[in-house]
Automatic annotation (TrEMBL):
InterPro entries: FAD/NAD-bd_sf, Flavin_mOase-like, FMO-like. It holds the Pfam family FMO-like. Gene3D superfamilies: FAD/NAD(P)-binding domain. The keyword DNA repair does not apply. Belongs to the FMO family. PANTHER family: DIMETHYLANILINE MONOOXYGENASE. The chain crosses the membrane at residues 20-49, 307-325. The keyword Acyltransferase does not apply. GO terms for molecular function: flavin adenine dinucleotide binding; N,N-dimethylaniline monooxygenase activity; NADP binding. Keywords: FAD, Flavoprotein, Membrane, Oxidoreductase, Transmembrane, Transmembrane helix. It comes from Aplanochytrium stocchinoi. This is L-ornithine N(5)-oxygenase.
Length: 341
């Protein structure tokens, strides 16, 4: 196919041996900017620490306008977010919690029915583990990239350990929410995923929390699909068996998109198929590829961007409370790239 038909701008291939890795002026300028940001970060650190301390004691001594035990709360989605929300509500003393999950078990994206081939974490386990339920028994285990199956087992253990399953209604999907602003109540229409025709109306809830981030699969429209002759799959439908079949039959695969799932898909193929059999098309790279700006791009502006990202990741790793630096710098970097382009 012609890449230009998809609106993709191709960059001429550049032999790594021809890349200029050492440019004294660019490196010196990048280090200077990094030093400036490090100095500013240290300068505002006492104020951030004071703010965090005041905020901590404020919420620790705050009184509830309404006792948590009298609240009735619904949570939609039993994945990574849903589990943590239910646990935090349980900690706060909320007793009447109902979490609706359309699958037959907790897990969300990591459930076997939704887990695509070779799904893994892109970061060490310690960076995403539950605060009060550590993963594994050693630092080595927590420093590894967890396969999807192991992470799902970990989530199930978390639910069992804190007795969270009693709050879940499995095989149920919320099809409609009717809210009454005058009474500050909401009623849910819930259907069974086993028999979709069975719709039940719940009792009024005081709060409804939407904890599902797994959207509906989006597949681009292919012109002249009848002439294409190939197969179109969403990443969530790429099962282990389908993955093996594509490799064994020496099929050519085009991965469209720059998300985590597309990154996982490409990584799962690169070691098993010839280079010409895998093509990756994306408008923006997945966030964990940002280091490319610093390592593989000779432009001065990208060296600055790469160093800023390294600085922000370091700050977030040293103190989770400073993670907002990364969000700020992401937006700043996007603005810089927009102006530069």
């Amino acid at each position: 196919f012609d890449k230009n038909d998809l609106g993709v701008k191709s960059t001429p291939y550049q032999d790594p041996t021809e890349r200029v890795w050492w440019r004294p002026f660019g490196v010196a300028a990048a280090v200077s900017v990094l030093s400036l940001f490090a100095f500013l970060a240290l300068l505002v650190s006492p104020f951030l620490l004071a703010f965090a301390t005041v905020r901590h004691f404020y919420f620790a001594t705050a009184s509830f306008k309404r006792q948590p035990s009298t609240c009735r709360i619904a949570v939609i989605g039993g994945g990574w977010n849903g589990l943590q929300i239910v646990r935090r509500l349980q900690e706060r003393g909320v007793e009447d919690i109902t979490c609706y999950e359309k699958g037959d078990d907790v897990g969300g994206t990591w459930h076997p029915d939704k887990r695509y081939a070779n799904l893994k974490l892109h970061s060490p386990a310690w960076s995403v583990q539950f605060k009060d339920f550590l993963y594994g028994r050693s630092f080595e285990e927590r420093s590894s990239r967890i396969p999807g199956k192991h992470l799902h087992d970990y989530m199930r253990s978390f639910a069992d350990n804190f007795d969270l399953r009693k709050y879940f209604v499995l095989n149920s999907t919320v099809v409609q929410i009717e809210s009454d602003s005058s009474k500050r109540k909401a009623v849910l229409q819930v259907a069974s995923t086993i028999d979709g025709s069975v719709v039940q109306q719940t009792e009024p809830f005081d709060m409804v929390i939407f904890a599902s981030l797994a959207g509906k699969p989006v597949i681009p429209i292919i012109g002249n699909e009848s002439e294409f002759g190939g197969e179109t799959l969403h990443a969530s439908a790429l099962s282990q068996d389908k993955w093996k079949q594509l490799i064994e039959e020496n099929k050519k695969v085009v991965v469209v998109g720059g998300s985590k799932s597309s990154c996982d898909t490409v990584l799962s193929f690169v070691d098993y198929v010839p280079d010409e059999n895998i093509i990756w098309l994306y408008r923006r790279p997945y966030h964990f590829m940002k280091y490319e700006d610093f390592c593989h791009n000779r432009d001065f502006i990208h060296k600055i961007g790469g160093l800023l990202h390294l600085l922000c990741f370091s700050l977030a790793a040293l103190a989770p409370a400073l993670a907002w630096y990364e969000i700020l710098m992401l937006q700043t970097n996007n603005i810089i790239n927009f102006i530069y382009q």
